[in-house]
Amino acid sequence: MEKVSDYFGCFVFDDRVMKGNLSSEVYRSLKKTIDEGAKLDISVANAVAEAMKEWAVAHGATHYTHWFQPMTGITAEKHDSFISPSPDGRVIMEFSGKELIKGEPDASSFPSGGLRATFEARGYTAWDPTSYAFLKGKTLCIPTAFCSYAGEALDKKTPLLRSMEALNRQAMRILKLFGNEQVKCVRTCVGPEQEYFLIDEQMYRQRRDLMFTGRTLFGAKPPKGQQLDDHYFGVIPPRVEEFMEDLNQELWKLGILAKTEHNEVAPAQHELAPIYTTTNIATDHNQLTMEIMQKVAARHHLVCLLHEKPFAGVNGSGKHNNWSLSTDTGINLLSPGETPHENAQFLLFLCAVIQAVDDYQDLLRISVATAGNDLRLGANEAPPAIVSMFLGEELNGVLEALEQDKPYHGAKKTNMKLGAVVLPKFPKDSTDRNRTSPFAFTGNKFEFRMLGSSNSIACANIMLNTAVAESLRIFADRLEGAEDFEGELHDLLRETISAHKRIIFNGNGYDDSWVKEAVEERGLTNDPTTPDCVPRILEEKNMEMLTRHKVYSAPELHSRCEITLENYCKTVLIEANTMVDMARKEILPALQSYMLCLAKTAAAKKNLDAGIACSFERDTVTALSALADEIAEKTEELEGATEDAETKNDVYLQSRLLRDVVRPKMEQLRQVCDEAEKKTAKQYWPFPTYGELLFGV
Ligand code: ADP
Ligand code: MG
């Protein structure tokens, strides 16, 4: 078998390929664009396009596409072939710099939230040279941003790049204050841990709820679930192992640093984590990872479920966004340093994050809001919908000492006067004990754990980057004017800790008492559902902040709000309609057949004239008949509520109606159906049960 190091990145037009296939002059200009955002000359673009095409064609490619991330949350592509007619009636393979830099897909079918007037259906895609082009099958994919003709972002990548730029700008101001002259830029890095379920394809095809909505809408609890905790880090079943092997190979060929894989808590649940990289690349890679997981699963007759809550009563799937800030010179700004000077800088960045998370809790919550994630957040395996931070005992001690101007009794007894302290290094295990916190410091990075498994990580990082940029801006404004820098910094940190310590919580986030304490005593925001939180994006403080850093324009924010709610509504409506359909067309007929069988059996037994009691048949038919009536009734009710919600044109109203009326009715229908399932013989139940789905691989 081939060595991984031989084929790693073989489908990527990466630095090595560029160096080998571009003239040194072109390579240097392109590098300047990639590293410093310098404008790209069309002659350079032409040369890059030519080299890309030659490389792609040599690898069997016939087409190219601009690859972008519209607000649907998945990726989009429109393929064009390289062929161009030549005068002799044949074709040549062509690809110009113009085609590389800009594309004009018909964008009218992508959600725009009213941004793109219908008469101007075109949007355009613009090359993002910082993310490498790659090959998918016979197609050269060029990572791009997607905008309307008026320049409004129609995708998730554009605001992400803008947020990285905003953070870079403000962090550079701070680094200057600390006298870091060599640093040219600051980037955020992300390593997203991705959870998913694998189930058998045959079974999947028998469940229309899974096929239409990605989750089970019915299903009684199996006798065995995750009670024994025997799946977590357990032995990986051979079929899954083959899948993982295949998946890793595909990811490695695309230069994706897939690193860790293991079973998760729930049966059939697994996790994959890559090695962290620059945020926009990590985002592209995570989108690709999700796509390839599904493709590779199909090859193994498996289905990869990325839904946040595919099974009730079993853990859902999330994504942990490990986030840090680092300089182009390789310094992690969230890593406590060796010297007092470095420590002061570390504490400033730490406080900037604390302030950002407290001030913009609502935006972080919004960034993970989907109908699917609402089912997971606050359930007992996931952080609550309330944002709080965990820093660990040691760091807490440091901040407390700093706030109260007291000595810090940590590993070493030290005075907390800034400029004189040497902070202890925080070993990972001393900081990572709390697994229930939505936002935890883990030694040299923060782990944001509220993301749903199917979320694009772009949104969370846009909000996080921009909120931190805002804290840094406020800090820089104050410190740049200071006469006594050290004194001002000391006051700034103390005031920040004191003003924002309410967001720090080291207890158990899964505990009910936390919700009460968070909301009533600390005044933190608790928005359990998408319809609650999303409209807050339009609150003045949020609009002001996001537009100030030019991450979103006001119309773009209105469009995001609209699209997120619209997506919520569509999702719940599909779920409700699927339930109605399955109850009527599958569950009720199945119950009828089973009851008929029981009734016939009882009648036949009676005919024997042997005085047989038939109590099982009689009791079961009686119970099932009552349940069937109830199912029919609840189905009618759900259908009525759904139809009523469907007539509402206002997404705000519709989303609340779906949450308050339709979802509870779905739950009621499910309960009676699950009850009926428990009483029905296996061969009569119309689709695979939880036990079969979860333990079928
Ligand atoms: P866990 O204990 O949560 O499973 P790991 O330490 O294995 O975590 O790391 C999880 C993820 O965090 C990986 O994707 C890893 O690459 C990423 N990670 C590690 N260090 C950093 C960092 N400095 N910045 C961003 N992500 C990081
Ligand atoms: Mg983790």
Automatic annotation (TrEMBL):
Coiled coil: 624-651
Keywords: Coiled coil
Domain GS catalytic stretches: 156-587
PROSITE patterns for the chain: GLNA_ATP, GS_BETA_GRASP, GS_CATALYTIC
Superkingdom, taxonomy of origin: Bacteria
Domain called GS beta-grasp: residue spans: 62-151
Segment forming the signal sequence: none
Family designation: Belongs to the glutamine synthetase family.
UniProt name for this protein: Glutamine synthetase III
Annotated source species: Anaerotignum lactatifermentans
